[in-house]
Design goal:
Strand content: 5-15%
Largest sheet: 5 strands, mixed
Shape: elongated
Strand order of the largest sheet: 2-1-5-3-4
Length: about 250
């Protein structure tokens, strides 16, 4: 496959960025998207064209949430329910032009090229995304009966990998789906109920203070989430928050 790549290049957080165009030839349709970028970077080095394009990646198995790229106007590209590292070049056609950008959201400032600072998610988690009470050992946890429906809902919420696609896809840069998944994950388990009220209040407060926008129920976050986190978790977040504020 021969491709034209339009990639956002930005030297550092304070520099003005712009799109640069690169030509790439002979890419296998079976290559992953990140392997394609690896090939591009090797070409940039070998031909002394430019410095390599900086982009985040780690596990390359769709479980770490590092590889967030905005590809042809969609977080993680044209496939559904996959991260960028799981995206393959067979989703594109020979001769295609591919536009690659970083996440665009005020709470995710660009560090360089396609790399953004997603530590805002870490700060939200530090505000309440944990269980600090003594829950006993593994045998104790297994001895607590949990309805299957609750266990399944908690596991569905726990699938969130914190990649930030929900924020990048939202016109308001809302982090509600991310926070909702974390709150719902604990709210459905007995171990999480002890601190439930303080957790939801603190995480929502941190989300607001960090500059994330409000949810207006467009559903873009659910549509672009690589782990298919449901909007129903936002409904649970709202219920948990109202109860915590009233009681």
């Amino acid at each position: 496959m021969d491709l034209t790549l339009k990639i956002w290049r930005q030297k550092n957080a304070s520099a003005k960025g712009k799109f640069e165009t690169y030509q790439l030839k002979g890419i296998s349709p079976d290559s992953s998207f990140l392997e394609m970028l690896d090939i591009l970077n090797q070409q940039l080095i070998d031909d002394n064209i430019a410095t390599p394009v900086c982009f985040d990646h780690d596990c390359r198995e769709g479980i770490c949430g590092m590889c967030g790229l905005y590809i042809n106007g969609r977080p993680h590209g044209p496939d559904t329910a996959v991260t960028t590292c799981q995206l393959h070049m067979r989703k594109f056609k020979d001769g295609d032009t591919i536009v690659i950008e970083p996440w665009r959201a005020k709470p995710f400032p660009i560090i360089r090229d396609l790399v953004v600072d997603r530590s805002a998610f870490d700060k939200i988690m530090q505000a309440g995304g944990y269980v600090s009470v003594n829950t006993g050992g593994v045998p104790d946890a297994n001895a607590i009966p949990i309805p299957k429906r609750n266990a399944d809902t908690a596991m569905d919420a726990a699938a969130c990998i914190g990649c930030g696609a929900c924020v990048a896809s939202c016109k308001n840069a809302s982090a509600m789906l991310f926070v909702a998944a974390k709150v719902s994950q604990y709210a459905n388990l007995p171990q999480g109920k002890v601190e439930a009220k303080e957790r939801v209040k603190n995480m929502v407060k941190a989300m607001d203070e960090l500059g994330f926008g409000n949810c207006t129920n467009t559903g873009a976050c659910e549509a672009e989430c690589p782990k298919e986190i449901s909007l129903s978790h936002i409904a649970r977040l709202n219920r948990e928050f109202f109860v915590a504020k009233i009681v």
